[in-house]
Design brief:
The protein has seven helices and 25 strands. By secondary structure, the protein is of the alpha+beta class. The protein starts with a helix and ends with a strand. The structure holds heme C (HEC).
Length: about 475
């Protein structure tokens, strides 16, 4: 491999040298066109891709443009940002010329989508990993964004679609909509988000949903909520809202929200900072930017770290978080592992611990997405260090641990979805230490969710378009 890499350019130079020296042919030689978009491409890959994905073709191919797809409106958005949705202003970062070039580049991508699509479309359903060969099977398709997944005891898959529907998918791949799901605020990063079963589901049939809600008396405001309902046939009954994050905000991003039941039978879930980093994550009087812990009925466990503290929300378990969209219980230690979207270069893996402060936005390894600096420190006494942070950011979403021995060589690995790079990150651990990473199913789609089935298969939810696949190891 290395030898080929070295030799090929040398042969290339040789051929070029031969033909370049023949002056009579110069006109026929395709001279490499100077790439007018070179600088825009660099900026897009380094900065914009953090939120819009590496593939500009997919970004430019959007069906609906909020501000219109003319050059002027695109340049306007880049300059001013859409702060309430989480798009920063780049006015102080880039010159008018650079912004104009970026707008031209997006328009070129929009007009030539095929040219800007991933260079190598996936042609085979068989993938090679460092440890084993596997293929993918499509479990269900026709979704918008399969945000959360949970398995029923009989092996049927419950999957949320961000647009507001909950489906049951049986072994034959038949998709049935579950009735009785609460109305959700499907806007920006909001919608129907995670789904989780009560640990004693078989006796009580409780299903938990996290989702974005609209304030009853003010449509402009939204928040994160958790409801539970009992699954009877294909309907949720006795639905009750057991948590509502307050206060509400006009912003359309950073809702969280993953749910996991710990080995202690308590429900852990995340609420993002709603883009209000200076008000929310460090305040114990606000629900945002936190991991919460509740009893299964929504009441407060008496041993919660702030249960008896004045001026603190009693449901808070840990704080100083930005936007955690991955959560899983470690199969051996029972610890609550989370991933969170950080600023540029600051996406993290953490282990949530009672009463601990994870530091956002006081300490961070990242910078603002528009290149400006918001903190100079990445450590501080009383604030936890991440187990791991990604530079560049991968936009982590969804998380689970490989259990069982179905995937030889992957036992006990951590799996983390990457929205940005469209892969499933296989994270090899030594205890709590991250020692190696390998991208799986690269290029298949933006990875939104990952879950082990009861029979220990890996299921992955992908979006744009939305579908769920299952990874099947090929034994030799
Ligand atoms: C921190 C996240 C983030 C970064 C970084 C970011 N954007 Fe955005 N951008 C958003 C969000 C959120 C929206 C609004 C939702 C949407 O349209 O996707 C948006 C919208 C846009 C739109 C408007 C689309 C429309 O519908 O009208 C354009 C154009 C755009 N971004 C370009 C860029 C460019 C160019 C860069 C890099 C210089 C960039 N963005 C960096 C988050 C980001």
């Amino acid at each position: 491999m290395n030898i080929i890499k070295l030799v090929l350019p040398i042969i290339g130079c040789f051929i070029l040298y031969q033909s370049c020296n023949n002056s009579s042919q110069t006109q026929d030689i395709p001279v490499a066109e100077a790439d007018v978009f070179a600088e825009a491409k660099e900026i897009y890959a380094a900065v914009c891709s953090g939120c819009h994905g590496m593939e500009i073709g997919a970004f430019a191919d959007r069906k609906s443009w909020k501000f219109g797809d003319s050059k002027d409106s695109i340049a306007y958005v880049i300059k001013t940002g859409i702060v309430e949705d989480g798009m920063p202003s780049f006015d102080s970062t880039y010159s008018a010329d650079q912004i104009s070039l970026l707008a031209d580049y997006i328009i070129d991508a929009k007009d030539n989508v095929a040219k800007y699509r991933d260079a190598a479309p996936i042609e085979s359903d068989t993938f090679m990993s460092e440890e084993l060969t596997y293929r993918i099977d499509t479990v269900v398709s026709g979704l918008n964004s399969p945000w959360g997944m949970a398995f029923l005891p009989n092996g049927d898959l419950l999957v949320t679609d961000k647009s507001g529907e909950l489906y049951r998918v049986d072994a034959a791949g038949k998709k049935t909509e579950i009735k009785g799901v609460p109305e959700v605020r499907y806007k920006g990063q909001g919608g129907l988000l995670d789904v989780e079963l009560h640990p004693d589901f078989e006796t009580n049939q409780w299903v938990y949903l996290s989702y974005a809600i609209t304030k009853e008396d003010d449509e402009s405001l939204g928040s994160t909520a958790i409801s539970r309902g009992q699954l009877k046939g294909n309907a949720l009954v006795n639905v009750e809202r057991i948590f509502e994050a307050v206060p509400y905000f006009e912003t359309g991003h950073h809702y969280g929200s993953r749910i996991s039941f710990g080995n202690d039978g308590k429900m852990y879930f995340s609420v993002g900072d709603r883009g209000k980093r200076d008000e929310n994550p460090q305040s114990l009087e606000r629900d945002q930017g936190k991991i919460h812990r509740l009893n299964d009925d929504g009441s407060i466990p008496s041993d919660n770290p702030f249960a008896n503290q004045d001026n603190a929300k009693a449901s808070i378990y840990s704080y100083g978080h930005r936007n955690p969209q991955g959560m899983a219980v470690h199969p051996e230690t029972g610890a609550i592992w989370t991933t969170e979207h950080g600023p540029r270069g600051g996406d993290e893996i953490n282990i949530s611990l009672p009463g601990k402060n994870f530091g956002w936005p006081v300490i961070s390894y990242g910078i603002n997405y528009n290149g400006t600096i918001f903190t100079n420190i990445n450590t501080k006494e009383g604030m936890e260090q991440p187990l791991h942070y990604w530079v560049p950011s991968i936009a982590p979403c969804g998380m689970d641990f490989v259990v069982g021995d179905r995937y030889p060589g992957w036992e006990n690995n951590l799996l983390v979805g990457s929205l940005k790079y469209k892969y499933l990150d296989r994270v090899v651990l030594d205890g709590d230490k991250i020692v190696h990473e390998e991208p799986l199913i690269k290029g298949l789609g933006r990875v939104r969710s990952v879950k082990m089935s009861p029979d220990n298969y890996i299921y992955v939810g992908l979006e744009n378009p939305g579908f769920v696949v299952k990874l099947i190891p090929i034994t030799k």
